[in-house]
Amino acid sequence: IRCPVKECDEEILHGKYGQHLSSHKEMKDRELYSHINKGGRPRQHLLSLTRRAQKHRLRELKRQVKAFAEKEEGGDIKAVCMTLFLLALRAKNEHRQADELEAIMQGRGSGLHPAVCLAIRVNTFLSCSQYHKMYRTVKAVTGRQIFQPLHALRAAEKALLPGYHPFEWKPPLKNVSTNTEVGIIDGLSGLPLSIDDYPVDTIAKRFRYDAALVCALKDMEEEILEGMKAKNLDDYLNGPFTVVVKESCDGMGDVSEKHGSGPAVPEKAVRFSFTVMNIAIACGNESKRIFEEIKPNSELCCKPLCLMLA
User: Fold this and answer.
1) Pick from 106, 122, 137: which residue ends a domain?
2) DSSP-H helix ranges across 159-202
3) Domain identity same for 171 and 304
4) Do 190 and 102 fall within a single domain?
5) How far is Cα 38 from Cα 14, in angstroms, rounded to an integer?
6) Based on the domain organization, do 236 and 265 belong to the same domain?
7) Which residues contact 4 (CB under 8 A, 6 or more apart)?
8) What range(s) does the NBD domain occupy (predicted)?
9) Do residues 247 and 274 lie in contact, with contact meaning Cβ atoms separated by under 8 Å?
């Protein structure tokens, strides 16, 4: 074969052609010449072939991949091929396509989880209608449901509220209802009023303390398990666990001012909440701390106990 590179014109044996071509470092398009077809019609591109022809052309490679998969990956050919495909995509900087493929492989689909959408809606201060508008626009433009609809967000929100997780105290607590439901009550019910108190009407959503604590601990399940793993403890231990809680209450300002128009009414919103400060577990004679709140003053780790309008 005569070398097609300018100012070379050397004649090379067919078997040594690839080796000769690699000596031309300055050639950027040398791939164009590296594939030689010994007569016959030019080879069609792999992706344009029928499935049968693709199988025929790749049979040797498939055999090698199968041998590798059986030796290294317990016979999982799909995982090997998928990983090769992902690496090929990422090598060409096609990261978006690679991310989508990875999501499908892991059974996640390319959409976001409802809890992630809820976090986005809350952290970007979008109202329900604003979020719904964004959801519809993205779905119409991309043709894919990346954000989840509002009803999925509401379902995710319920899982974060006390009363969602059924639980049982062992031994049972005295004088505490076994019902975990949450209701709307008078926020001051049960508080003794003195004559000097300012007459105040309240409406509140008040959660049972034990239901709220169970919900908070369920929410922190991953952190607790990670903490136990870090201390080389088993996933399941009888305990006892010691949970240190800080209670707090803050006024949320004058509600009437937040709306702007209308007469000023002396409405105050108050939130009673608690923060799980740390969790320790008894191991023999010593106590090992498996969780500690890094930002105990952040409102992000406040768990609600009572939300009240006064």
Assistant:
1) 106
2) none
3) yes
4) no
5) 10
6) yes
7) 33
8) 39-106
9) yes
**Helices 150-158 + 128-142 axis angle, to 10:** 130
**CA Rg value for the chain:** 33
pTM above 0.70, yes or no: no
Structurally, how many domains does the chain consist of? 3
- 136: domain range? 114-159
Cβ atoms of 268 and 203 closer than 8 Å: no
DSSP 121-143: HHHTT--HHHHHHHHHHHHHHHS
For residue 240, cis peptide bond before it (omega within 30 degrees of 0):
yes
Cα distance between residue 62 and residue 243, in whole Å: 56
Instruction: Please write the tens of the pLDDT for every residue from 3-51.
Output: 877 778 788 887 777 778 777 766 655 555 555 555 566 678 888 889 9
Tell me: cis bond preceding 114? Omega within 30 of 0 counts: no
Of the candidates 242, 180, 248, 246, the one whose C-alpha atom is nearest the C-alpha of residue 210 is 180
Query: Phi/psi of residue 187, each to 5°?
Result: -65, -25
Polymer length of the chain: 310
In a domain, 198, yes or no: yes
Query: What residues contact 205, with CB distance under 8 A and at least 6 apart?
Result: 182, 183, 184, 306, 307, 308
Residue 199 is assigned to a structural domain of this protein: yes
Is residue 191 located within the same domain as residue 231? yes
Amino acid identity, residue 233?
L
35 vs 56, 99, 237, CA distance in Å? 18, 32, 64
pLDDT band at residue 175 under the 50/70/90 scheme: confident
DSSP string, 237-248: ----EEEEEEEE
Name the token pair of 69. 């998969």
Distance in angstroms (rounded) separating the CA atoms of residues 117 and 149:
9
| Residue where a domain terminates, one of 66, 86, 106 | 106
